[in-house]
Specification:
The protein is an alpha/beta fold and 268 residues long. Helix content is 26%, strand content 23%. Helix 1 runs parallel beside helix 5 and helix 3 crosses helix 4.
Length: 268
């Protein structure tokens, strides 16, 4: 495969949603990071997410209750260790977003009181544990994370670049199971380039756009899953694609999501 340019970094993050940008910020204090974005930086599922993010902030709530609600909603298919880990660490992760500037809605308190966040309830939750920024939580998270990433000296953003395939070491005489970079397609200049990296992270989101009808953005086409599989990774649960049950249909417009908060508050 002919290439026109080679880039070097410590960590290549393929994907520019909440997962990719959060990871980039976490590791950038001790590594040089390149973040690859298939389209404009904000054109991903995170930006369009509406309702909110779940964590135990209410004193009347508990980790045990969050775990139990998750297992019930998962119909017995959840991995217990994963559920426990996420529920236990959710508050710390949301606090990290708050410290980074994400403007979650607050309730009025006295001037000398600590901030308290407005919590709503969504489907499957027995308590109000959803933090939100109005009804555009994804936009608030994506915009804040973008601002933090763009101002970080150790992070470089490549917009309008498609990841084509991972480069494994066996292509240069090494081990087949060691990833050393990626081939990328520069959509602006229409040529292939390479990135050499000590670590490559796939944060490309889901594959719902392979279906004819979905509220997911066009970029959710499963590229990362396919690249991982071609490189020898084990993939599982490919039938688990998220489809929001509440969309607005118009014959002359694209389908789009109606917020999950409608169901959580019993309005649908």
């Amino acid at each position: 495969m002919n290439t026109n340019r080679e880039h070097l970094c410590d960590v290549l993050v393929i994907g520019s949603g909440a997962a990719g940008l959060s990871l980039a910020l976490r590791v950038a204090e001790r590594a040089k990071v390149i973040v690859l974005s298939k389209g404009p930086l904000s054109e991903g599922a995170t930006y369009y997410a509406q309702g909110g993010i779940a964590a135990v902030f209410d004193e009347a709530d508990s980790i045990e209750s969050h775990v139990n609600d998750t297992n019930i909603a998962g119909a017995g298919l959840c991995e217990q260790d994963t559920v426990q880990f996420i529920a236990e660490n959710a508050k710390e992760c949301v606090q990290w977003l708050i410290d980074g500037g994400v403007p979650f809605d607050q309730v009025e308190t006295a001037k000398d009181e600590a901030p308290r966040y407005h919590l709503t309830r969504e489907g499957g939750h027995s308590h109000r544990r959803i933090l939100h920024a109005a009804d555009a939580t994804g936009m608030a998270m994506q915009t804040t994370l973008q601002d933090n990433v763009l101002s970080h000296p150790n992070i470089e953003i490549f917009e309008r670049y498609n990841a084509l395939d991972l480069i494994t070491e066996d292509k240069v005489g090494g081990r087949k199971d060691k990833v050393v970079g990626a081939y990328i397609w520069n959509r602006n200049q229409e040529h292939v380039e390479t990135v050499r990296a000590k670590f490559v992270v796939l944060a490309t989101g889901g594959a719902s756009k392979v279906y004819q009808y979905t509220s997911n953005p066009d970029v959710s086409s499963g590229d990362g899953i396919a690249m991982a599989w071609r490189s020898g990774c084990r993939v599982a649960n490919l039938e688990f694609n998220q489809f929001h049950p509440t969309c607005l249909f118009h014959p002359d417009a694209r389908n789009f999501l109606l917020t999950e908060a409608l169901r959580g508050e019993g309005l649908t």
